[in-house]
Specification:
By secondary structure, the protein is an alpha/beta fold. The protein is built from 10 helices and 5 strands; from the N terminus they run E-H-E-H-E-H-E-H-E-H-H-H-H-H-H. Helix 7 crosses helix 9, helix 7 packs across helix 10 and helix 8 packs across helix 9. The chain starts with a strand and ends in a 12-residue tail after the last helix.
């Protein structure tokens, strides 16, 4: 079954370019398009979509608020925020709003296609190290370590799960975490899954965001305390 993709961007030429790339794939089809957030929400009421490629700066309703409204719906499609270097601050807001990741608009086609497939399969598309660099760059948007009370749900985690969460937020992959803690990758994956469940998070991108917001990890990428 093809991955049903929706393009949301106010620039017609960009949508046309993305449409051409996706149309050449046997496992993807563009089933809907919209030029702003308001139109996107209307289209989604009548169209079944798996993945939404979402611009951030649009008229009427921007991509961040549109993402928030989409992700609050039951059985919501996955959302990928599309940004440019000078709009990276919107990517952080988009991740908080529920997006499964972000990409630059000039991403190579192969990376875009791989990201869509990854998101559709339930993974986050932003590499942990990339997420860390984004958060480091805009650390002023986050509370300083130790100045905010920890999220009460963090108390639900075991010591090992907190340790894994800190390493995820520092940009380590499951394999790197396994090597650091002398565990199997399968065990690390199980810990990550339990963290997501206990904290009510969608994916590891949101784990990173929460770890920084609560001061569990400092903006410089290290563990707090």
């Amino acid at each position: 079954m093809s991955i049903r993709v929706m393009l949301v961007d106010d620039q017609l030429l960009l949508r046309a370019g993305f449409r051409m790339v996706l149309a050449a794939q046997p496992d993807m089809e563009v089933v809907a398009e919209a030029g702003d957030g308001v139109e996107a929400l209307e289209v989604l009421r009548a169209t079944s979509v798996d993945v939404v490629l979402m611009d951030v700066r649009m008229p009427k309703l921007d991509g961040v608020e549109t993402t928030r409204r989409i992700c609050s719906r039951p059985d919501a499609p996955k959302v990928l925020i599309l940004t440019t270097f000078d709009l990276d601050e919107y990517a952080f807001s988009g991740l908080k709003a529920g997006a499964s990741g972000f990409m630059l608009k000039d991403v190579p086609p192969a990376e875009l296609l791989g990201a869509i497939r990854s998101v559709h399969s339930g993974d986050a598309v932003v590499a942990p190290s990339t997420t860390r660099r984004l958060l480091d760059r805009f650390s002023s948007m986050l509370p300083s370590s130790g100045t905010e009370p920890e999220h009460k749900q963090l108390g639900r985690l075991t010591d090992r799960e907190r340790e894994v969460m800190m390493l995820v937020a520092q940009g380590l992959s499951n394999g790197e975490i396994a090597a650091r803690l002398v565990l199997s990758e399968a065990t690390v994956k199980t810990h990550v899954g339990r963290i997501l469940t206990k904290l009510g998070l969608r994916d590891r991108v949101q784990v990173v965001v929460l770890a920084y917001e609560t001061g569990l990890v400092r903006a410089g990428g290290g563990a707090a305390g």
